[in-house]
Structures are given as C-alpha cells and as structure tokens.
Write a structure and sequence with these properties.
Helix content: 55-70%
CATH class of one domain: Mainly Alpha
Largest sheet: none
Shape: globular
Radius of gyration: 19 Å
Structural class: mainly alpha
Strand content: under 5%
CATH topology of one domain: Serine Threonine Protein Phosphatase 5, Tetratricopeptide repeat
Length: about 140
C-alpha cells in the first residue's frame, strides 16, 4: 500500500477513537450516580430519584434527592442532582444553592464543576484545607 492510503486509514482510526472516547463520559444535564460513601437509605433515595429524573418526573426526583439529603447531607451527588431537578423545573434560584453546595462537597468533581447549569451561576473555587482527604476529595477524620 502506498503511504497516502496508510495515512488516511490512520487518520480515520484516530478520529474514530477520539469520537468514541468523547462520548464515553458523563452525559450533560443528567443526574450523577453515587461514587462515594453513601449510607444505604440515602443511596436508595438517589437511585429512585435518578429513575424519576430519567422519566422526566423532576418533581418526584427532587423529592427523593431532598430525602437523601435529609438522611445524609454530605453527599455532593444528591445536592447536584437536586439542583439539576430544580433547574429542569425552571426553579433556578432554588437550584443555585444546591449546585454551590455540591461543588463545596465535591471540589474536584469535574462533572459538578463544569456542568452547564452550574456554569450559568459562575464558578466556586475549591475549598483548600490542610485536612487529609480520601480518594474522592472528602475530608477524613
């Protein structure tokens, strides 16, 4: 084969890999799955909320995320998802504190920090402390 054909095939393969890799990440404006250390009850509420969110039942989803926050208020994913559900209901003022709280709880979570609804409200700089942190950026005791 000549070099032009090999070069073209290489570029096509490279383009395919880049496109597939770009699509493999988190979908924009979708609720987050739990990654951290949620207790069983809070995790169940978030899973139910995500189910309602996927079905475009944002009011029901918000209620589940609020329940998860009442059980375990330190879950950045629950605050983010609640903010997203409120945002989808055009309750932007109510959504803002939850996006902010999510960014404070998960300062290094790029999905939370770069989500379009959150960017609309500006950025929140990560809180830098001398406290030891685990793999998820949570402060440890």
């Amino acid at each position: 084969m000549n070099r032009w054909v090999l070069g073209t095939q290489f570029l096509i393969c490279l383009l395919f890999v880049v496109l597939i890799g770009g699509c493999a990440g988190h979908k924009k404006d979708h609720p987050l799955e739990l990654r951290g250390d949620a207790n069983t009850e809070a995790a169940a509420y978030i899973l139910e909320g995500n189910h309602f969110f996927t079905g475009k039942r944002y009011r029901d989803a918000a209620m589940k995320y609020e329940a998860a926050i009442k059980v375990q208020s330190t879950l950045g994913e629950a605050h983010y998802n609640l903010g997203l559900a409120l945002y989808r209901r055009s309750l932007h003022a109510e959504a803002r504190p939850h996006f902010t709280k999510a960014a404070q709880l998960e300062p290094f979570n790029q999905v939370i920090r770069n989500a379009p609804p959150f960017r609309k409200y500006g950025t929140t700089k990560p809180k830098v402390t001398d406290e030891p942190r685990d793999d998820y950026g949570h402060e440890t005791d």
